[in-house]
Amino acid sequence: MPKLLRGPAGLLGFLLLWEVVDQVGLVSKTFIPPPSVVLVTVWDLLGDPEFLRDIVATMLAWLIAVAIAIAIGVPAGLLLGSVPVLRTATAAIVEFLRPIPVTALVPLVLLVIGSGPDAKITLAVYASLWPIMFNTIYGMGEIDPVLMETARACGTSRFRILSSVALPQTAPFVFTGVRLSATISLIAVVSVEFLAGSQVGLGSFILVASTGSIRFDLVLAGTVVAGVLGYLINEGLEQLGKRLFRWSSVDREAIA
């Protein structure tokens, strides 16, 4: 089977299994509607302006969060990767902050920032920052020292070395970090929308559907749309990375 078709084939197999499990009565159709019902609901929702507004709100917050995470993570990774003393000095605080889950920070962020778009963007930036920064640091360690020494011997400033020598060499690692962070950021945005009770967004839609009329086909439809968006983001970035960095095997060495 062509590699391009393996993913859709696996998804189709999962949907068929889900349908069979529902139809034979192994699970309740009330709580877990079959895909034949959920996919029809998704189709109907795609014609609903309010649902489309929720998708746009989620994707806009996701895009802003990823852009901010790149703007912070890449320079921080270049700096920490090029100054071992600074990296050692900040290692403890970084390793303390990195494992903290986004959900644990929701109450604090809501108190400080509120429940508006700033909250979900802030937490999505926090969640997606680490893969970008750590892959950049790792990429710095893979640079041929001769390149750096040659640049220093020519009197090149540190900023110019980082921007003209280090950044191009670490680009495959940075891109892999961005790809990992893109899906993490989407998860964070939808989760915060759900937990914080945002006014708009896919997470807000799922929350309302699960607490209002309790239509589980709507809950699963919103979840399916979020999953499809995550898949398209990851697949699109993966294909772009293969075109940009065909010579690189960075994906096999990526740091999550």
From TrEMBL:
Topology within the bilayer: Multi-pass membrane protein
Where would I find the ABC transmembrane type-1 domain in this sequence? 55-237
Q: Which family does it belong to?
A: Belongs to the binding-protein-dependent transport system permease family.
Ranked from the top, the taxonomy reads:
Bacteria, Bacillati, Actinomycetota, Actinomycetes, Pseudonocardiales
The record's annotation in Gene3D superfamilies points to: MetI-like
Name of the protein: ABC transporter permease
Q: What is its main location?
A: membrane
| Any Pfam family matching the protein | BPD_transp_1
Q: Which organism is it from?
A: Amycolatopsis nalaikhensis
Cross-referenced PROSITE patterns: ABC_TM1
Q: Which residues cross the membrane?
A: 55-80, 92-113, 119-138, 184-209, 216-233
What are the record keywords, sorted?
Cell membrane, Membrane, Transmembrane, Transmembrane helix, Transport
Give the subcellular location. Answer: Cell membrane
